[in-house]
Amino acid sequence: MNTVLVRRVLPPVLLGVLALIAWELLVQLAKIQPYLLPAPTAIAKQFSAVLPALWSATLATGTNAFIGLVAGSILAIIVALVASRLRFIDELIAPVVAAIAVVPIVALAPVLTTMFGATSETPRRVIVMIVVFVPVFVNTLRGLRQALPVHRDLMRAYAASNWQLTRTVTVPGALPYIFTGLNIASSLAVISAVVAEYFGGLQNGLGSRITSAAANSAYPRAWAYVFGAIVLGLVFYAATLVLERLASRRR
Amino acid sequence: MSPASGVKAVEVTGVTKTFPTKAGLVTALDDVALSVAPGEFVSLIGPSGCGKSTLLRLIADLDTPTAGSITVFGKSARQARLDQDYGIAFQTAGLLPWRSVTANIELPLQLHGAERAQRRDRVAELIELVGLSEFAGSYPEQLSGGMQQRVAIARALAERPELLLMDEPFGALDEMTRERMQSELVRICGETGAAVIFVTHSIPEAVFLSDRVVVMSPRPGRIREVVEVRLGDARGEALREEAAFFTSVTDVREALHGTPGAPAARGVESR
């Protein structure tokens, strides 16, 4: 246990610390201006100074990302289940999914903000849903198609209902694929929730704090919020990994 | 579940099956007739493409015949499938990799709503029957090919079917495992009294297991000859070295190849 900790955790931590030291030295020795690149110590100072605000901003953005991720994933999985069973739905939905995949958030965010009003969290959640939908849908559908002919024959021989086939063969077989989709989606959820805040609306999240700090030339503060966003993204990613472990043990 | 006396386990009459392919219509089975009595062990043997697996799939109602009729215990094949009158095993064990041995054997019972306690007792019985008690909690990937097939056979037997359909279940096993599995199957059939339709490539396997061997020929798939084996119910390992065994092997081989000494039909193992 201890050796695992030493061999697997220590090297990346060490690398991170060394990188921070190098960064600090670079900024100090080369006298780099804060608007170009603030020193880690300056960012850390800001980090503790804005901690309450950072916490509430992370919470606001995290809530949006979480709600969008859950809603978008559930929708994607349901649509994939339907598409895997009904060929015409599959053919109907393929171009729509391709279209959703290339929707520019940059263009959509202002439109949705206007649509739902500047005091609503809804446009951000909708954007996260849209971004999350594609990877979850594509991977789930691929996974659902992995069912072996011999398993299908077997379930037919057992006169199993469609629902039984789905529950006992198709979905358990698709789980690794669904989680691949969720892993990608979890990071995308945080990124899109932050980016969606760049285009107006409520000023309560990490994205809006980053833009306003940058606009006020408070670069170390902007960076502090950027690190908040990184931590939030890692938390989301780690959460789906834990979920995957639990599911693959139980399925 | 016990069928009325006099009713055949399987009755196949005038069955034809054609598949549309890019090269045109392929006749997999042409006017095939076969009947299997309750408790009888019948093997289907023939070279690749003779339609033996297709015939089994039709009896199992996994496919439907183009023409002709199939009854299983006097019912349509479809009704027999819906009533779960048969158990089935395929060439690949077809176990669900995320389920333990116990959970795999339990699958049909679970699907058909058997009670938990009942399920547990039956599964314990079946695991004992196929000699895998030590591996009840193992997962398929932890088992050898032969053990996986034994799990598949236990699963096929779970609901005490009067008919077992087996599509080359030992095809992928090595010779030694194969012979041991054959002996076990003979024992299990003796204990359960089920009729069996057994698809195989191997002449000795067919002879060792069967009451009758149905010899088929390809393009189009037809029944060429039915060889009566009747080696008796007590089939020990010694049977494999008896003269009667070799006589039947020769009978089947000659039926397969048409004339004595003709070149071996493709896809048939004579070992």
Would you write up a description of this structure?
The complex is a heterodimer of chains A (251) and B (271). Chain A has 10 helices and no strands. Chain A is mostly helical and 251 residues long. The longest helix of chain A has 35 residues, at 51-85. Chain A has one domain (50-250): MetI-like (MetI-like fold, Orthogonal Bundle). Chain A has helices spanning 2-30, 40-49, 51-85, 87-101, 105-116, 122-144, 149-157, 162-196, 206-215, 219-250. Chain B has 271 residues and is of the alpha/beta class. Chain B has 2 domains: 1-85 and 167-261, Rossmann fold, CATH 3.40.50.300; 95-160, no CATH class. In chain B, 34% of the residues lie in helices and 24% in strands. Chain B contains 8 helices and 10 strands. Chain B has helices spanning 52-59, 77-82, 101-111, 116-129, 145-157, 175-192, 203-209, 243-257; strands at residues 10-21, 24-36, 41-45, 67-72, 75-76, 86-89, 163-167, 195-200, 212-217, 222-228. In chain B, strands 6-7-8-3-9-10 form a 6-stranded mixed sheet, sandwiched between helices. Chain B has a 4-stranded antiparallel sheet with strand order 2-1-4-5. In chain B, helix 7 packs across helix 8 (243-257). The N and C termini of chain B lie far apart (38 Å). The model of chain B has no long low-confidence stretch (mean pLDDT 85).
Give the helices and strands, then pairings.
The complex is a heterodimer of chains A (251) and B (271).
Chain A: H1 2-30, H2 40-49, H3 51-85, H4 87-101, H5 105-116, H6 122-144, H7 149-157, H8 162-196, H9 206-215, H10 219-250
Helix pairs in contact in A: 2-10, 3-4, 3-6, 3-8, 3-10, 4-6, 5-6, 6-8, 8-10, 9-10
Chain B: E1 10-21, E2 24-36, E3 41-45, H1 52-59, E4 67-72, E5 75-76, H2 77-82, E6 86-89, H3 101-111, H4 116-129, H5 145-157, E7 163-167, H6 175-192, E8 195-200, H7 203-209, E9 212-217, E10 222-228, H8 243-257
Parallel strand pairs in B: 3-8, 3-9, 6-7, 7-8
Antiparallel strand pairs in B: 1-2, 1-4, 4-5, 9-10
Helix pairs in contact in B: 3-4, 3-5, 4-5, 7-8
